[in-house]
Fold this sequence. Notes:
The structure is a single chain. The protein is an alpha+beta fold. 25% of the residues lie in helices and 33% in strands. It has a single domain, classed as 3-Layer(aba) Sandwich (hypothetical protein tt1805). Strands 1-5-2-3-4 form a five-stranded mixed beta sheet. The relative contact order is 0.26. The mean pLDDT is 92.
Amino acid sequence: MARLASGIWVAAYLARLRAEAIPAYVTARGDETAGAVLVKLATLDGQARAFHRSLDLMTGARTWVTLTEGDEREVDAAISRQRGFDPDLWVIEVEDRRGRHLLDQDGFAD
């Protein structure tokens, strides 16, 4: 099965967040076709969490897992290091005091 191009996935994700009135921004634009996507969730209290997609080798399922979490400055530093390794990486920042990111909903692991 063909995978969805990164730029299309990002646009759909942002639209879904907007529909739920959850602010989100593209803070780093990656490769439109095959760039990996990293999602930062800022809870607006100085804390944050960064998620990336991971492949479960046993089942073939793609899931979102926490890359790092804690003080927002430390999470930003970890994201910056990831961008240094992968300049094609997309970074989406979600801001929600309740910690909503919607990555656990159907359609976002694909």
